[in-house]
Amino acid sequence: MSDEERERFLRESVTGAAEAPVEPSARAREVERRLRERSGQPKGRRTYSPARPRPRRTGWYVTGFVAAVALLVVALFPQLVVGRLGGDDGAQDRAPLAAESEGPREAPGAEPDLRPTLAQPFRGSPAARWADGAAGITVPPARATGWMDAAQVERALRQSRDFLVAAGLDSRVLQGERPTKAIALLNPHQKDVQEYLRTALSSTAPTPETDPLLLFSRFRPEQARLVGDVVKTRGRLTYREGKRGAVEVTADVTFVYPVTPPGDGGRDAEVVRAIVRREVVMSWDDPAEVITEPGTMSLVSYALDMTNGGCSDPTGYFVPPFGTADEQPTDESRQVDPYDRSKPIDTNNGTTDAGDDCATATRS
């Protein structure tokens, strides 16, 4: 062995060769033993298990696609959507009219020419968008007027509407009973009105001047019955200072009564709408100037216009023309729209007159 080989042999004996195995330390051997004793592989705290995949977010995209298709259908075929939402009425999907705060300037627009039914008694009528009952009678804000302060005017307006409700919407009065609540609001010292009430509500053959229908809505139960419990109304109250400082309230209201013959006519029973417009002027008098009672008012005037209420001599009740609408005596030269509230009531050219002469209603 040369001197160089001997020197290399001695050096590797002291430091160890590069390929020679190195014995692990005691700590390394302990860690290795623990790992062998544990089964499986450890999982990190935020690691997802392959057996529980994350959910796919597909719902939002599907909803967006459906919405896009729906909008496309509405744009291309609006009549299909209207048919689905509004049925065959065409008015059910339209918003109700706002309250009548001032006199209209024109008649309501044309409606689909559809026959009313028991399920939809206002079908094909402008009244389908009117309010129900007292809600359709607009009461203006109160301000001090005449002998009343604002609070007293507010009470007078409220009681004026109460009179209209008691005279034209009370279910018992509509069935022919005495209008007790309405009469209680009338000045008992107004002799001409008290005489009218006595005659109108007791006579079996009233005249046009003593017809109770001038103030009260009534049907004979054996002739007609209301369809449902809704009467459509549209109108308003106005007021001003009247004679001797009185607060004079004017009511201009149209009532639409759907009625059918008594008895069970089945689903195809005939439905007729009696349309009644009344203008009543009421005077809330100063007790210092007029003999009156607290909470009562005097009648200044009252006028009536009606359609489908009867064309013959007055009977004291509305007489709907069931089954004989084409046989009613009419004057084709005089046509009126019973829903047109833009014109004042004209008793000489309305749908009701003394005798057997009626104008022709353009719609009902």
Count of separate DSSP helical elements: 8
Residue stretches low in confidence (pLDDT < 50, at least 5 long) are 39-67, 77-93, 349-356
Beta content? 15-25%
Inertia-based shape? elongated
Succession of helices and strands: HHHHEEHHHHEEEEEEE
Major sheet: size, sense and barrel closure? Answer: 7 strands, mixed
Number of strands: 9
Average pLDDT, all residues? 80
**Structural class, from secondary structure content?**
alpha+beta
Kindly provide the radius of gyration, computed on alpha-carbon positions and rounded to a whole number of angstroms: 43 Å
Helical content stands at 10-25%
- End-to-end separation in angstroms reads 135 Å
Tell me about this structure:
With 364 residues, the protein is α+β, with helices and mostly antiparallel strands. The protein has a domain at 109-361. Helix content is 24%, strand content 17%. The protein contains 8 helices and 9 strands. It has helices spanning 3-15, 26-37, 59-76, 78-86, 150-168, 171-174, 180-183, 191-200, and strands spanning 131-132, 137-138, 225-226, 232-241, 247-260, 272-284, 298-307, 331-336, 359-361. Strands 1, 2, 3, 4, 5, 6 and 7 form a 7-stranded mixed β-sheet that branches. A two-stranded parallel sheet has the order 8-9. Helix 3 (59-76) crosses helix 4. The protein is elongated, with a radius of gyration of 43 Å. Residues 39-67, 77-93 and 349-356 have low confidence and may be disordered.
